[in-house]
From TrEMBL:
Species of origin: Penicillium arizonense
Domain of life: Eukaryota
Plastocyanin-like domain boundaries: 8-91
One Gene Ontology molecular-function label: oxidoreductase activity
UniProt family annotation: Belongs to the multicopper oxidase family.
Protein name: Plastocyanin-like domain-containing protein
Amino acid sequence: MAFHSPFAQDHPMHLHGHDFWVLGSGYGEFDSSNPNSLTLVDAPRRDVAMMPASGYLVIAIKTNNPGAWLMHCHIAWHTSEGFAVQILERES
Ligand SMILES: [Cu+2]
C-alpha cells in the first residue's frame, strides 16, 4: 500500500490489526515505476511509521487477520479531519 500527502507536515501513520513492513518513504510522490527504490529485504517492521511532510509511505502487510482495520494518522485531530482509511480484509 502506498500513501501520499501533499501537506507540509509529518504524519505518524498507524495500522490496526497488523504490524507492517516499511518498504519506503520519502519526499514528493512515490514513483511506482521504480520498484528498486523499495526495501524488500529486512525492511523495518512497525505498527507506526512516519510519513514525511509532503511525502509518501509504502508499506506491506501479511493478510492473515480478517477484519475491518483502520489505518490513520496518529495525530488525533488529523484523523478527526478525515485522514483515515478502513481496510477490509477477507479470509480468502
Ligand atoms: Cu497527520
